[in-house]
Amino acid sequence: MPAGRVLGVIAIALAIAVLFNSEAMVRAGEGMQPGTTRDIVLSVARPIDDVAGAIGLHLPREGLDLAFGQEDKTASGTELEEGSTAILRRKTEQQAFRQPTVADPLKVLVTGDSQAEFLGQRLIDQAPEGLLDVTTVARNGTGLTNPAFFNWEINAEQEVADRNPDAVVMAIGDNDGFNVQTADGSLYDPGEEGWETEFARRVAVVASVLSGDGDRPVYWVPPPTARDPEFNDIYASQNRAAERAAQATSSLRYVDIYSTLNRGRYSDTLKIDGKQVLARQPDGVHFTREGAVAPVRLILAAMAEDYPALRGR
Amino acid sequence: MSFPTIEFAAFFLVVFVLSWALMPHPSAWRPFILAASYFFYGWVDWRWVLLLIGSSVVNTVAAQVIARSPSQATRKRALIAAVVFDLGLLAVFKYLGFFVSEMDSALDSIGLGSPLPLVQIVLPIGISFFTFQAISYVVDVYRGVTPATSLVDVAILQAFFPHLVAGPIVRANELLPQLRTPRDPRAVLAGPAIFMIVGGVLKKTVIADELARRVVDPVYNDPSAHSGAELTLAFYAFAGQIYCDFSGYTDMAIGLALLLGYQLPQNFNRPYLALSLRDFWRRWHMTLSRWLRDYLYIPLGGNRKGRLKTYRNLMLTMLLGGLWHGASWTFVLWGGLHGAGLSAERWARERFGGFHLHAWVAWLVTFHVVCIAWVFFRAPDLGTAFDVLGGLGLSGPSPLVTLPLVLLVVAAVGIQALPPGWWREAEAWFVARPVAAQGLAVGAVLVIADAAVGQQGVAPFIYYQF
Fold first, then answer.
1. So what's the pLDDT on residue B406?
2. Which residue is closest to A150 within chain B, CA to CA?
3. DSSP secondary structure letter of residue A161
């Protein structure tokens, strides 16, 4: 076949894919890190998506999503995007929860971004045997500052409805370098006080959904120290925000791995059980499988405050 | 940059047009395709391109010395220097961290503390592949199988983007002659190319990623939380996942190269139909198998130095083949199981020469040995692997075992039993359709594939980590 004809086939195929997948293309663009590629993808995809939506080209894709069991993870007008900071002025009440036994273990949902993967895996082998039934659902590349790509309020509603856990461990924040817009339209960059307040509000919103308005405890694990100083500052800000949200949100527990591990200083290695282990992956953010034991023990210590039966280690 | 992404689609569209436009001018085409390949490779981290260029320069110089020197001793020294450099790259980037960690543990276990500093090294994507290609190039020049060539040609041989990240492992005498002959823009093998790309996309998104997400990952994350039925499903599901993931990638790589006018060697030939492990290795990751055979097994002596040394050579080849995949005891054990299996088969052939198992029995045994070995390949550590194997017979609730998932596993494995003639007839039918119909069909498949992966996106290919 002549190359020109092949180009025709490729062009038509890509045009079909772009037209019928325009929503997915916008979402993919929203999920990219800020930069030229993201700007290009969004500037092309958004107008196409407007046109495609207007003439009903979204319908086949919606049917396919239904067939493949894909749930929509975005929505407009949610509290995550547009709610008030009044949620940070609530009073907390200490609650008691059902204690786990081997016959009736605690159903724990470990979720969040990619950091959740190893935390979930190691929680299984670090917890006293038989007391936890852990399910890990990591949503890679997601965060709270980019709800147009992935709305954690919507996802939290779907997850707790599907799984009905007794407790939730939420490890998130690695991808939250985006600026945020508040309900009054103000825009804040990471590092600004307004960003931290808005982030705290979003933590409170998602934690409130995950906890079922206080029915179950949520252990919020913001990122640890990072090798990159810029990320490190953002992560410090997120930790302050999560702590603030925890003071205002019933059943939300802030797990401080940032300042506890290695006394708040970044290190590739950590001493675990007297042995030095390579604790971080080459990106200087994620834990290795071996290193994840250290934060998991802090999570278990936090859980043991609510569930004394877990005080075994 | 991964194949099934928006970025790659845009990149390939530009490369496709410019590549065919520049094809009549080799002096312009070669720097162009090299620059495009480096752009592709440096998309994530441009420093890796420097490593790739360094590898090409060293191996080009060594090959030139080998080709030009009249002294056998000099030729041999140049060969050894190049191979040591290539293996040194692998040793530093892939194995140093593992080695130091294991040494540290060993010293600690005999009471000497943890004296070694643990090292954190980023593994450049595809290093195992482009390093093996470099070794095969200098060895082939030394053996006189292929002539030494220019730096640009060697660089394209290593970096040509369709095969750069995860193969197939191409030999110099397969690609270099094609580079020297301009391709004919009126005769693009579009039918097979588009079929392979579309088939690869579907294998990856609809089968491999679905199996990983719905059964393999949950089970291997915590085998103790799953019943024997779920472990059994995951046991077979990973066999289907890794085949569809890796062969899907390879199909896309070969198809993309075909669209640019270049033929890459096949990497799979219906491996799960194999009737012995020897047969399996002639069908699975064929370009790695022949590399191990020609550059490791035969130089070790192959089967020419007696029975015991043949077994030793088989074991060494497969153990190193396992280690090639990753610095971990699980890969070593995976290779060891295959080495032991191949040795056992050889012993049985020699001991019971005239006796043959019924084809069904031979298939069943081979397939299950392969599946058992896959458990070690997939598990994050040996403990998890033994938990999976040990729990296969346990009873318990099995919510993961659903009819659609069982059918998907059957499809992933059973797809290989379809007669190859059907595929060729479908290709011929497709090529005979008008351009618009072809474009519509391919576009529809892309929409389906994107819907299958949903918002979590396409998972990285398994072989990217090697």
1. 93
2. B455
3. H
State whether ipTM is beyond 0.90: no
DSSP assigned state of A170: E
Interface check for A5 against chain B (CB to CB < 8 A): the answer is yes
CA geometry: angle at B460 spanning B456 and B464, to 5°?
175
The CA dihedral of A163, A169, A174, A177, to the nearest 10 degrees, is: 80
Query: Are the beta carbons of B451 and A9 separated by less than 8 Å?
Result: no
Is the pLDDT at A89 greater than 80? The verdict is no
Interface test with B, best of A5, A7, A9 (most B CBs within 10 A): A9
Q: Please tell me the distance from the alpha carbon of residue A220 to that of residue A246, in angstroms, as a whole number.
A: 8
Which residues are paired to A135 by β-bridges?
A: A109
Distance CA B329, CA B438 (A): 47
Q: Is A110 helix (H, G, I), strand (E, B) or coil?
A: strand
Which one of A16, A41, A134 has the shortest CB-CB distance to B6? A41
Report the C-alpha gap between B378 and B138 in whole angstroms: 33
Cβ–Cβ of A25/B6 closer than 8 Å? yes
Residue contact B118–A268, C-beta within 8 A: yes
Give the whole-angstrom CA distance, residue B249 versus residue A264.
Answer: 42
* pLDDT, tens digit (0-9, with 9 covering 90-100), for B126-184: 899 999 999 999 999 999 999 999 999 999 999 999 999 888 999 999 999 998 888 88
CA distance A155 to B179: 51
Q: Catalytic site residue B163?
A: no
d(CA B156, CA B262): 12
Which residues in chain B touch residue A136, judged by CB atoms under 8 angstroms apart?
218, 221
Q: Flag whether residue B389 sits within 8 Å of chain A, measured between CB atoms.
A: no
Question: Is B240 within 8 Å of B413 (Cβ atoms)?
Answer: yes
Q: Which residue of A has its CA nearest to B97?
A: A278
Task: Please give chain B's pLDDT, 466 residues, in tens.
Answer: 778 788 888 899 999 999 998 888 888 899 999 999 999 999 888 889 999 999 999 999 999 999 999 999 999 999 999 999 999 999 998 888 888 878 887 887 787 776 777 777 778 888 999 999 999 999 999 999 999 999 999 999 999 999 998 889 999 999 999 988 888 888 888 888 998 999 999 999 889 998 998 899 989 988 888 899 999 999 999 999 999 999 999 999 999 999 999 999 999 999 999 999 999 999 999 999 999 999 999 999 988 888 889 999 999 999 999 999 988 899 999 999 999 999 999 998 888 876 777 889 999 999 999 999 999 999 988 999 999 999 898 887 788 888 989 999 999 998 888 888 888 888 888 888 889 999 999 999 988 888 888 777 777 788 877 7
Mean pLDDT score of chain B:
90
- Active-site option among B163, B226, B325, B338: B325
- Nearest CA-CA partner of B429 in B417, B418, B420, B438: B438
Q: Which of residues 419-448 of B touch A (CB under 8 A)?
A: 431, 435-436, 438-444, 446-448
Q: What are phi and psi of B234, to 5 degrees?
A: -65, -35
Looking at the DSSP bridge assignments, the partners of residue A278 are A269
Distance of CA A196 to the CA centre of its chain: 16
Distance from CA of B238 to the nearest CA of A (A): 19
Strand partners, A36: none
Residues of A in contact with B446 (CB under 8 A): 13-14, 16-17, 21
Q: How many CB pairs below 8 A link A and B?
A: 147
